[in-house]
Amino acid sequence: MPLIEFKNVSFKYGDAESYAIKDINLKIDEGEFILLTGSTGCGKTTLIRCINGLIPHFHQGALEGEIIVNGYSTTECTVAFLSTIVGIVFQNPENQLVSLNVLRELAFGPENMGIPREEINKRIMEVAEKLELKHLLDKTPIELSGGEQQRVAIASALTLKPRILLLDEPTANLDPKSAKMIIELLDTLNKSLNLTIIVIEHRLELLMDYVNRVILMENGRIIADGKPSEVLYSHEAERSGVNIPRLIRFFKKLKELNPKLISNPVTIREGVEALKKVSE
Amino acid sequence: MIEVIDLSYTYPDGTTALRDVSLKISDGELVAIMGPNGAGKTTLVKHFNGLLKPSKGKVLVDGVSTDKMTVAELSRKVGFVFQNADHQLFAETVEKEIEFTLKNLGFQENLEELKVKALEEFDLLKYREKSPFSLSGGERKRVALASVLCANPKTIILDEPTAGQDIIQKNNLLELIRRFNSEGKTIVIVSHDIEFIVDLNPRIIVLVSGRVLCDGSVQHVLTNKSILEYSSLTPAQITEFAWRLCEEWTPLPRNIVTVDQLLAALKEHIIGGGL
Predict the structure, then answer these.
(1) What share of chain A is helix, strand, coil (3-state, %, to 5)?
(2) Nearest C-alpha of chain A: how many angstroms from B237?
(3) What was the pLDDT predicted at A190?
(4) pLDDT of residue A73
(5) Is any Cβ of chain A less than 8 angstroms from the Cβ of B137?
(6) pLDDT at position B274, please?
(7) By CB count within 10 A, which of B52, B123, B180, B203 is most buried?
(8) Which residues numbered 199-258 in B keep a CB inside 8 Å of some CB on A?
(9) pLDDT number for residue A95
(10) What CATH number does the domain containing A61 carry?
(11) B146 pLDDT exceeds 80?
């Protein structure tokens, strides 16, 4: 059974004239690491709001079809219950961090769920260890750098031990090195905890070394879904105006010059191998 | 012309954000300020339109020290577009947003004309009666740009203009910046977006811990491993790819940043040998 399943899902926000997402059918297995992309307004954020139950419980509107998360139909569970299965991290951690210090921030979620004190402390220590936050526990969120704040936001989602983590442009405000560290952290969590991860991101090259799947949306629909090499070399990706990484643009041009080059590299490693091989 | 002379700035809470910064930006230049989070980039550019005044040293705009001018006077010369459009917009309608700038800066006779010109320029005529907050993120960004650029400032400062923008919006922005720059405007852009900066090809000033680490071209700055390391920047994807090809396959120049440069460098392989 897939961990997440969308069955003919469409959603229209309360006052909107058109659908934000339309006829979505989607299955996501446990342990996948997925890049969700598409131009602004294509429905990416609406799609992930359906997974953690913000739609339909918080954002009013017309929902059609069914969304099953970990065996539960989202319309039949509360957002609080779903938050123990699905964690979410936003673009701007300042909007998400509410507590006086990092320790309180990490305790906030599990305390609200009524989890026993001892268990909360154990979880906080585990997460702080894993995300290298131990030295920051008594700091206030505003004393932290952007990258540290984003690590705290991820950590506070993890203290509820979710099976799924959703991230909406988590690196948009970070410098390139901090952005790279956040993506590497997600990769570690994906591998070590078998955490299912869905990231919304416009800068696709950041994720090419890590994701197993890319979902591309346009006008509320999924227009391509598959391995990074399949989606990013597709006509749909070219047409929809997605930000195709330079490495792929380079290979597209090279392939026009040399039809012998048949592979579709998406990572630097694959690119090096492809050129070595064809020049042998 | 903007001249920064031995500028230091300490925030009221005691944090020193800039230390002895000196630099000169000539009329018509296109300049990017880059560096890690917290390096002082925004603090520096806030001195260019007088939002901040130096703790030590001087900032001269067209030869006049910014502490001798009001923010209103400076705003006619230097327009500032904030990273988050929502921090900047407040009026009831798009039209009023633009009127506000113009009135504030003392435009009277040609106010209507300038307003319509700005609305047209940013494709906002159809939204003139709408609330800026009913528009999409990309449209709000255009309102923010229009409300600054309607006053026709000679210098435009853009703080992280591409954060959270998709490729269509980025390309529009790229075109806009190039056009304004070719019309003679000075553009100063604060950005982390390496791939966007490669496309824009500006002069780059790198700030680290409140000091200028280096100042040079894209090909010089973004292909220098130690500069990148110190400034929390990463090489453009094509640069990294070229470096790896160089280590593992064939000699290549170290300063490749664009797809076309890489194709040109591989020309002999493509024509003669296999590629």
Answers:
(1) 45, 20, 35
(2) 7
(3) 97
(4) 97
(5) yes
(6) 62
(7) B52
(8) 232-234, 236-238, 240-241, 244-245, 248-250, 258
(9) 77
(10) 3.40.50.300
(11) yes
What is the residue range of B266's domain?
A: 235-275
Residues of B in contact with A249 (CB under 8 A): 259
According to DSSP, the β-strands at A221-226 and B2-10 are unpaired
Q: Are residues A36 and A133 in the same domain?
A: no
The DSSP call for residue B127 is G
Number of structural domains found in chain B: 2
Q: Nearest 5°: phi and psi at A126?
A: -60, -50
Q: Yes or no: say if B49 and B101 are a contact pair by the CB < 8 Å rule.
A: no
In a domain, A93, yes or no: no
Rounded mean pLDDT of A166-192? 92
In a domain, A90, yes or no: no
Contact yes or no for A74/A6 (Cβ under 8 A)? no
- Asked whether the beta carbons of residue B274 and residue A261 sit closer than 8 angstroms, the reply is no
DSSP string, A31-86: T-EEEEE-STTSSHHHHHHHHTTHHHHTS-EEEEEEEEETTEEGGGS-HHHHTTTE
Q: Judge whether B270 is closer than 8 Å to chain A, CB to CB.
A: yes
DSSP state of A279: T
What ipTM does the predicted assembly reach? 0.88
Residue A239 sits in the same domain as residue A203: yes
